[in-house]
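Narrative of accomplishments. A recurring question from our advisory board has been how the design workflow behaves on a single, concrete structure rather than in aggregate. To address it, we present the structure tokens for one chain from the evaluation set, followed by the sequence designed for it. No filtering or post-editing was applied between the two.
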């Protein structure tokens, strides 16, 4: 059963992002799915993350993605403010404010999750679950970065793609 354009009826339709709104949708949709997988892997294999249902974990992944993106956007704005200054104090403040925002935001995220989901989502362990939350978030960000790098690598042409890790001989 073949269609006129030589594609099987059972093959998925290829979708190309043609504008920025579509690209952003795919980007954040994929990030939420990655966060959902990471979150549920922690639920399954760790005693420090507890979520009562898959639906709750989906909403928690969405909330985490929104809060993480908001935190990163604020951190970039503050860093740009201090980067415009040319003093050593400004350099110190740029790094200190980045650390403060990125670390301090985890308390806000933990409280937002507690407010939104109550006992349905729990991070338990040292420092009232803060370490478990930080580990989950770092894992989410690493998984998103690995996925982005693989995606960019797949987008390169075969001539420019280095499959040897940067140390091999090119044909």
């Amino acid at each position: 059963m073949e269609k006129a354009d030589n594609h099987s009826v059972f093959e998925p339709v290829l979708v190309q992002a043609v504008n920025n709104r579509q690209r952003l949708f795919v980007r954040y949709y994929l990030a939420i799915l990655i966060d959902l997988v990471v979150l549920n892997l922690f639920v399954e294999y760790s005693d420090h993350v507890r979520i009562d249902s898959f639906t709750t974990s989906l909403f928690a992944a969405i909330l985490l993605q929104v809060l993480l993106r908001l935190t990163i956007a604020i951190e970039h704005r503050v860093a740009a403010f201090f980067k415009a200054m040319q003093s050593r104090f400004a350099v110190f403040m740029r790094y200190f404010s980045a650390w403060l925002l990125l670390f301090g935001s985890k308390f806000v995220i933990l409280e937002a999750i507690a407010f939104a989901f109550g006992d349905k989502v729990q991070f338990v362990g040292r420092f009232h679950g803060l370490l478990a939350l930080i580990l989950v978030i770092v894992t989410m960000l690493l998984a998103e970065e690995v996925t982005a790098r693989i995606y960019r690598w797949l987008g390169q042409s075969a001539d420019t793609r280095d499959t040897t890790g940067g140390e091999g001989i090119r044909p």
